[in-house]
Amino acid sequence: MTTPLPVAGRVRVRRAALGEIAADKGAFAAVLALNALAAAAGLVGPWLLGAIVDTVKRSTGHAAVHTVDRLALLIVVATLAQTVLSRYALYAGARFGERAAARVRERFTDRVLALPAVAVEHAPAGDLATRGTADVDSVAATLRLAAPQMFVAGLQCLFIVVAVLLLDPLLGACGLACLAVVTVALRWYLRRAREGYLAEGAADAAVADTVATTTVGARTVEALRLQRQRIDATEAAIGEARRARLHTLWLRSVLFPSVDLATTLPVVGVLAAGAALYDRGAVGLGAVVAAAVYFRQLVEPLNAVLLWVEQVQSSTARFARIEGLAAVPRDAAPAGPVPGPADDRIVVSGVRYAYQGGTDVLHGVDLDVRPGERLAVVGTSGAGKSTLGRLIAGIDRPRTGTVTVGGVPVADLPPERLRRQIALVTQDHHVFHDTLRANLLLARPTAGDAELRDALAAVGAGEWAADLDAVPDLDGPQAQQLSLARVLLADPHTLILDEATALLDPATARSTERALAAALHGRTVIAVAHRLQTAHDADRIAVMAGGTVTELGTHDELVAAGGTYAALWHSWHGD
Fold first, then answer.
1. Residues in contact with 100: Cβ distance below 8 Å, sequence separation at least 6, in sequence order
2. What DSSP assignment string belongs to 303-331?
């Protein structure tokens, strides 16, 4: 059963965005100052142009020509100043955006690593991957490009409007009235954009999830001839993604035509109103020309603002998905410091457990695992073996009852201490695209080459893993051997093996398990045994059925008792 990861609300996204500004307020202040100066320099030209028109209209001769030349030179200087200031403003904005994007990526990585394992396992396979790739990339691009450029454009628009209003309030009011169409379209778009882009992000995640699960289960799909069903599921997910994208495209098709109107209406409005006012003597010709030029200058930044609005809305929705990881429920932290375990004794007492939304799969399990013991847990599929292993490993917390190590609840141990205390190894493993040495040093960063080779040899990987600097392309059994070699290097107090050797052939699996037992002599080893030969080699065997432990004893004792284990053993041997 999958549980979708949460999405942050508007308030949290706004707080996170403001937090990015506060984290680099010096750079943000520099962006503000440079853009303000650039915008101010850009206002000089139209004002001087209006002054030139008025000068030419009032007088002629050498003095007028000298004045015009001087004003034209000032326009050139102001234009150069604006160009230089704009260049450094964009540079400062890009630097701020890059640092902010880096913080978003780092915070996302930290939050993913801090997620409870159960939350990661229950999340749709493609959801977390999409948040860490497409969503983070979109937010990073916005912080790097859209945010600085929108800020620059917005500041320019503000300064231009103020300049026109100061030049002549009537002309300014006429020009602003012509922008009403843009305002109405923008408000309509913003009311619908967030939900549309959230739906688009969820649809993209569903496509990634469907493809990922089909790829991982490709062998099962082929064996059970489920190709048609998986193709139908993929096409359905793609169809939903297409509908979501068409919806956001429709929103843009309403917004973007308003951009075209915004480039012409204010200038036309100012010229029309200016002509009427000039005829009545209410405004000078220079003011009309300056106002028209100002509103013509408004076209470029206004276009930038409206065109980037779509990118910002999309990124805001994706930012909400990224920030939503902070809302993933964590287990309640202990009230105070957790003492270290007194010893390695594991006690399971009265444990009941149910997966989310389901009924109990464990029903009052009691088990006492002695330090240094090799315990095998056997039973039919669905008996609760793997679930018990997860509880002992501290991945899940029991609904009722306790699982303790050395008198301390396992799930309360800090992550670093828990990983040193108990390690769970399953048939699921990950090999990073790096050298063998780098993959092994994850378990013990201080290990030397001799220790790395000893660990590989102990799990039967000595031959193919001779070159520690190689970046190998491992098959399933080799990757499993590498995973087991990591366990030897980590040297946990307690090791839980749940199908950890399932990909190895029976002979290799048995020799590997014995090598592990020898290498971890004195450590506690709990093996969820799917091969009864593994149980035969254990010190004790716990038999599970119906979510509880029904038998406990040595191999000989349980065979002699003639119960469930004896039946399994005889069936295994074909008796």
1. 20, 23, 24, 143
2. HHHHHHHHHHHHHHHHHHHHHGGGGSPPP
Residues in the chain: 575
**Helix segments in 115-226, DSSP class H:** 117-122, 125-130, 136-141, 147-167, 169-177, 180-216, 218-223
Contact 437, 452 (CB under 8 A): yes
| Rounded Cα distance, 111 and 314, in Å | 22
> From residue 518, how far is each of 26, 375, 423 by CA, in Å?
59, 14, 17
Question: Each residue of 447-475: b (16+ CB within 10 Å) or e?
Answer: eeeeebbbbbbbbbbeebbeebeeebebe
User: pLDDT (tens digit, 9 = 90+) per residue, 138-182?
Assistant: 887 777 766 667 777 777 778 778 877 887 788 777 777 777 777
Assign residue 76 a region (left: φ > 0; alpha: ψ between -120 and 50; beta: otherwise).
Answer: alpha
More confident residue, 462 or 439: 439
Are 482 and 473 within 8 A, CB to CB? no
Lowest mean pLDDT among 90-99, 107-116, 499-508, 547-556: 499-508
* Tens-digit pLDDT profile for residues 339-359: 778 888 999 999 999 887 678
User: What's CA 210's distance to the chain center, in Å?
Assistant: 18
Phi, psi dihedrals of residue 516, rounded to the nearest 5°? -65, -45
**How much is the pLDDT for 367?**
94
Beta carbons of 493 and 394 less than 8 angstroms apart? no
- In whole angstroms, what is the distance from residue 518 CA to residue 514 CA? 6
Which residues, other chains included, contact 285 with Cβ-Cβ below 8 Å and sequence gap of 6+?
53, 54, 57, 278
Q: Report the mean per-residue pLDDT for the chain.
A: 81
In angstroms, the CA 328 to CA 115 distance is: 7
Residue 302 pLDDT class (50, 70, 90 cuts)? confident
Confidence of residue 403 (pLDDT cuts 50, 70, 90): very high
Residue whose tokens read 């799917």: 530
Question: At a CB cut-off of 8 Å and minimum separation 6, what does 102 contact?
Answer: none
Contacts of 3 (CB under 8 A, 6+ apart): 119, 122, 123, 356
CA–CA dist 389, 527 (Å, integer)? 9
Retrieve residue 190's tokens: 């913003």
What digits encode the pLDDT tens for the residues 191-248?
888 888 888 888 888 888 888 888 878 888 888 888 888 899 999 999 999 999 999 8
Residue 352: predicted pLDDT: 93
| CA–CA gap between residue 548 and residue 542 (Å, rounded) | 10
In the structure encoding, which two tokens stand for residue 160, read together? Answer: 């231009």
